[in-house]
Amino acid sequence: xxxxxxxxxxxxxxxxxxxxxxxxxxxxxxxxxxxxxxxxxxxxxxxxxxxxxxxxxxxxxxxxxxxxxxxxxxxxxxxxxxxxxxxxxxxxxxxxxxxxxxxxxxxxxxxxxxxxxxxxxxxxxxxxxxxxxxxxxxxxxxxxxxxxxxx
Length: 151
Ligand SMILES: [Zn+2]
Hints:
- 65% of the residues lie in helices and 4% in strands.
- With 151 residues, it is mainly α.
- The protein has one domain (2-150).
- Strand 1 and strand 2 form a beta hairpin.
């Protein structure tokens, strides 16, 4: 999963380099928290797949991908997409985005990637509008309450 590792490096870089208002940092933290959750879920799914494959090996069964593995794999795909969207949002906080073709970090306002030249379609700017954004908003409310009490 070199692609995910690369994205995750970009994300931590994004986090380190930023020194901005608390609100923006809190927003980043929430996105990153959700992202780490998704990464954890992917890891669990890998483990499950590994277990299934090993059990098949022990029983001397065919190791081809069957329906049960397909379901695990599509869950991983889905989580990977969520992580990618979260990273897009993290980058957009600092005016950047990931090239849809070569996955390099580029300025969000460019129409063509300086690295590979691919034309950039408009990326979903607000994850909050999507279904998986609801969870982010819920987290936000909880954390805002906490902040208010501390003040
Ligand atoms: Zn590119």
